[in-house]
Amino acid sequence: MSRSEPDLILVGGRVITMDPARPSAEAVAISRGRVTAAGSSGDIAGLAGPRTVVVRLQGMTVTPGFNDCHMHIAGLGVTLMSADLSPAAGVRSAETLVAALRTWANDHPRAAWVRGYGYNQNVFPSAGHIQRADLDVAFPDRPVVVFHVSGHAAVANSAALRPAEIGDASPQPSGGEIARDAAGRPTGLLLEAAIGLVTRVIPRLTRSERAEAVILACSALVRHGVTSASDMGVGTQDSADDIQAYLEAVERGAPLRMTLCPEAADLWEPDDIPCRDAVAADWRLTDRPDLDLPGAVRLGAAKLYADGALTTRTAALSRPYADQPGRGMLVHSTERLMGYVDGLHRAGWQIATHAIGDRAVAEVLRRYEAATGGATAVPEHRHRIEHAMLLDRALIGRIRRAGVVAVMQPEFIARLGDAYVLGLGSRRASALNPVRSLLNAGVTVAFSSDCPVVPGSPLDGIRAAASRTTPTGVTLGSQEACTAEEALRAYTVGAAYAVQDEAAVGRIAPGMRADMAVLTSDPLCDDLDDVEVAATMVGGKFVYGADALGLGCAA
Q1: pTM here?
Q2: Mean pLDDT for the chain overall
C-alpha cells in the first residue's frame, strides 16, 4: 500500500474491483488520476493527509467504469439534436411518426433538412415501412429523412430523393437496395449502402456542431456510468477534420475516454489500406498527453460490415426469414471482404467486423482464419466479431479457436426482441445472443450497446443479459442467460480487452486509471431493478453526480 498522501479517498462502501488479487474492498485511494490502493475502510482512511478529499460512500457500491466498446458517440449526439421517432417516444404508427416530425420541424424552422432517428416499423400495426408518399403529404418541399433504429435502413421523401438523384431508372447500389413498388418506383425505403445516396447530400455539420454533438453524447453517457466508449465507424474523406471535432470536444470538456474506430470501406480500397501507425500519426492520436484526464481520444480497431440487421431483414442467414422470402444480404463479395481483412491485418490493424447472421459470421471467420493462419499473422491480433447474434455450436468453436472476441449487445433482446420473433420465429429467436454457450466454450465476451440503436445504459444491459425478456414479456432462450457478475465483467474487463486497453481500465487496482461508477446498491446482491448510477468518476474526478449526491468534488 502506498504511503504517499492520496488526492482522494472513497470509504465506507462496497467495492467490486474485478481484480483477481482482491475481488472486493471497502475503500479506494486515488492519486493523480490513478488508483493507488484498495482495501478496508480502516486501512485506506489511514492514508489520508491534510489535503486528501475523503468521500464517504454510506454503503453504496463502486465498480469499474462501464466501457461501451461498440456504440456511435457522434451518432448519439446527432440523434439528441434530431426528432425522436422511437417507440418510447410514442411513435408506433405512420401517423404518430409524421406528427413527431411536424413538431420538430416547427421547432426548428431554419433547419434545411428534417431528420428523425429511432424509427422502428416492427411496432407499427402492419409492421410495414412508412412510404415516401406519407412523408410527401406533410413535407412536399422540405427534405425529410427518417433513420431506422438499426442504422441499416432509412426512408426519405421526394424532396430528399431528388438531390440524391434517386429515381425510377436509378441502378441498385452495390451492397444496398432502393426499395421499389410494383410499378418500379422508389418507395423511399433505402437499405444498407443505399442510405449513403441520401446522406451524402445532407448539408454537413460544421466542426463546431460535430464537437457539440460529441459533448452532448459524452454528457449523456456518463450519467449511465460509462467512462469509456468506442465510436464504431468514424471518418470520411476529410477524416483528419472529423477527428479534430472529437479533440475539440475534449478541449471543451467532454468527460469520456473515446476510442475511434475508422470505417475501413468508406475510407480505403482493399489494396490501399494504410499502416495503422501512419493513420494514428496523421490523425494526431499518438502519445496523447491527455489520456489521464477526464476526456481523451485514442485510435481503435478498423470497422467492417459483413451483413445488415435482423430488424430490417438484411442480416445474412443460412435459412430464409420466417415472415418474408430471402436470406438477407452480404455487404461485400467474398473477394472484396477477403481483400479488406487481409489488407487490414497486414497493415497492423485490429479488425472489428459487423456480422449478425450465421451466414455472415461464417464468412468473416473464414477470412480471419485465412489472414491469421499464414506467415503474416500478428501475435495478439485480437480481431472481433461485432454482434455475432445467430450462432451454432460449430461457429462458437471456431470463434474460440481463432481467438476472436465476441462483442455483443444484451439490450437488443430487451428492446428489439419482439421484432426478432417476427423475423425468425420463436425457436430461432431464442438462440440469439448465445452468451452462456460462448462463455462455456471459453470465448472472450465483451458487452456494449450499439447506442443509439438502443438507449445504452449498461445497467439495462446487465438486466437484459440476466432476464432475456422482450418488450412484450416473452423470455427468449433462458438457457443463454448469464449472471449479473458475468455481465458486469463483460462491460468492464471484457470490453477493456476488446479495445486493447485492459492494462489501464476495467479493474480497480493499483496503477489502473481511476475510472469508476458509484451505484446506489450492489448489482450482484440486490434487486437489479433497484440499482441506479449515483455518480461517475473519470481520471479521479467526478464528472457526474457528485454535488447532487453530496459526495463532494474531487476536481
Answers
A1: 0.90
A2: 93
